[in-house]
Amino acid sequence: MPTEFNRVYLAAAGFHLPGAPVGNDDMDRYIAPINRISARIKQRILAENGIRTRHYAIDADGNTGQSHAQLAAGAIRDCLRQIDTTLDQVSLLSVGSSGGDALMPGFANMIQGELGAPPMQTLSSQGVCAAGVSAIEFAAQAIELGTHQLALAVAAEMPSRMFKRSRFAPRGYQSDFDAHFLRWMLSDGAGAMLFSRQPRSRNGLRIKLKWVHQKSFSGDYPVCMQLGLTEDRSKSFLDFASSGEAEAAGALSLRQDIRLLPHLFDVCIHEYVKLVEAGWIKSEEVDHFLCHYSSAKFMPVVEELLAKAGLTIPPERWYSNLATRGNTGAASIFIMLAEFLQEKTLHAGEKIFCFIPESGRITAAYMLFEVEDANAPESVQSAAAAGDSPGASAATPAIAAPHQPEAAPLPLQPLLTRLASLWQDYRSQAWRTPVIHRLVSGRFDVAAYRNWTAQWVPQVKEGSLWMREAVTSLNGEFAALGQLITTHAGEEQNDFQILYQDYQAAGGELPLEALKRNPGGEALNSYLHALASNSNPVGLLGAIYIIEGTGQRIVPALLPLLRQQVALPPQAFRFLEYHGANDEHHLARWLTAVEITLALDPKAAEAIYATAKRTAQLYLMQLEHIQD
Question: Counting CB atoms within 10 angstroms of each CB, which of 188, 356, 375, 537 has the fewest?
Fold first, then answer.
């Protein structure tokens, strides 16, 4: 749950951007295309990302004009200048970034040295976009505890030095798309926020930090954005005999696997659903939405996911400076908030909600600020202490699950809200089961794939059987569901044969009838057949939700990893490819079945949820038992 604050105020926010704005036509002077492929990548990316100008701390010859520490120092000076505060009044410097000018010491220490600042506590948080939020949270916690009265949180990024032609050109002809991609996305800049234990008034208002929430899903997903590993993520730059060899092998190229980006936003919106469900925030109460997205291409993605969750924030409440400032990584939300406060006229009672997704290895971060009347009495008692914790809210809002079709019927939304939360926990645990974690870690091979499919085939074979059995158990008004389920079962009745052929393509030699379910698969099979034999087993819609959701939401991310690690022809992965492409349609049909069911019996929602929960537990057991 979020870290809640009661005595933390944003006293000032500043930023620093090096040099003059660089337009799209001028980018070639700094990070020129290497070849025709690079030029085409540039054209495509700039057409999508919506960035018109950005700033670089290098000049057209590739010379460094300002160091990384100098960028951060500039932002700090701008921040302190706004309220006429000096560094000797600040006792904590908390910094977040992907890295400074030197590998060590810590970036915060280098900034302190650059400023010639007096002795103080420092913290260096290294990461990607959410590293700045970590710096904010540490500073805010120190203020809340009373160990510091004034604390600076700073974020700075300076990727331009990695993209200049002199570093990139030597291997540009063989550079992969993932390495080229970020050259046209990222730029330099720094931002700073000063937090105070005592409220500081600006225009009769004060800004209070209400809470910060971060959650990393790095144990679930493979690396998405990285620097220091080879293209296949198998070798560190430190494993090479020399720096020159590491660079020649591409281990010092900044890369992003864009195929994983849709999962980032999906995970982040699910986490937001949990915050709403727990009462920490309501979309209708968000007056200003500051969303850090790396490309304008992702703005409609976020909008669509929010809409599907029933959590739409009107476009007029969004604020972004991406078009004019570019994507400055961890510094983006700092620069964005500082400019926002300079440009906007605020009013007491308004809420400022910040959303920061990080692609490094999938992290979601959120912050909520509230504008208060400077003359209003300070509220120092926490909601939890008063017995009214946001997480204990009695009124659960109605939210449609993000992965369901837009504008889900209102009666379905309470159930879909609960299922969305259940799915988030199940998905995370599924990614961390031994078989999938081995795949994510790059340690999979043909034998592991053969073993997995051998245990999976007999489980898939049972799918259409228990569904058809359930159809025969439907009676009365619920018989109307029969056709939907029969159609679904018919589409999947031969799926096991496709998977068995994949098993054979991986070298499997056992006949179909000799393949056995593992203990988890046996338990899942027994549970589903037992339910299917009951009268009107509508709770099985919960089982379909988990099983089909796995095919739609987890399988597509596994397929590229399998193709990369398992030396087999494309036809060895037909089952996974089919389900990744078709299970979205299956879930749309599932939604219709749920709508029919709840119209006949609203109490069936509890059975659907309970069955989904037990199916998730048993499906995880099946994955846990897949051993070599």
Answer: 375
Quick: pLDDT tens for 184-195: 899 999 999 999
**Do 364 and 416 fall within a single domain?**
no
Give strand pairing partners of 22: 54
Q: How many structural domains does the chain have?
A: 2
Phi and psi (nearest 5°) for 127? -175, -140
Helical residues (DSSP H) of 400-538, grouped into ranges: 413-431, 434-440, 446-472, 482-492, 495-505, 519-532
Which of 575, 437, 581 is closest to 506 using CA atoms?
575
- Is position 544 within any domain? yes
Please list the alpha-helical segments (H only) found in 220-260.
243-248
For residue 17, give the CATH number of its domain: 3.40.47.10
| Alpha-carbon gap, residue 300 to 319, rounded angstroms | 14
Residues 340 and 416 in one domain: no
What b/e sequence results for 375-396 when a residue is b if at least 16 CB atoms lie within 10 Å of its CB, and e otherwise?
eeeeeeeebeeeeebbeebeee
- Residue by residue, DSSP assigns 382-412 as -TTTTT--GGG-S-PPP---TTSPSS--GGG
CA 371 to chain centroid: 28
Type of residue at 606 = E
- Look at residue 389 and tell me if it is in a domain: no
Q: 406: pLDDT confidence band, cut at 50, 70 and 90?
A: very low
Tokens of 139: 């500073």
- Would you say the pTM of this structure is higher than 0.90? no
CA atoms 25, 26, 31, 35: torsion sign:
positive
Residue 392's pLDDT band (cuts 50, 70, 90): very low
**Beta carbons within 10 angstroms of residue 369's beta carbon:** 23
End position of a domain, from candidates 347, 373, 399: 373
Compute the distance between CA of residue 440 and CA of residue 474 in angstroms, rounded to an integer: 41
Which amino acid type is present at position 410? L
Q: Give domain status of residue 527, yes or no.
A: yes
What pLDDT, on the 0 to 100 scale, is given for residue 385? 36
pLDDT attached to residue 583: 47
Report residue 567 as tokens: 């030396």
pLDDT tens figures, 412-437:
778 887 888 898 889 889 988 999 98
Question: Residue 29: pLDDT band by 50, 70, 90 thresholds?
Answer: confident
Residue whose token pair is 């203020």 = 143
Dihedral over Cα of 62, 63, 66, 69: its sign? positive
CATH of the domain at 609: 1.20.910.10
The answer to whether residue 552 sits within a structural domain is: yes
Residue 436 identity: I
| Domain enclosing residue 600, as ranges | 410-624
**Where a domain ends, among 349, 373, 397?**
373
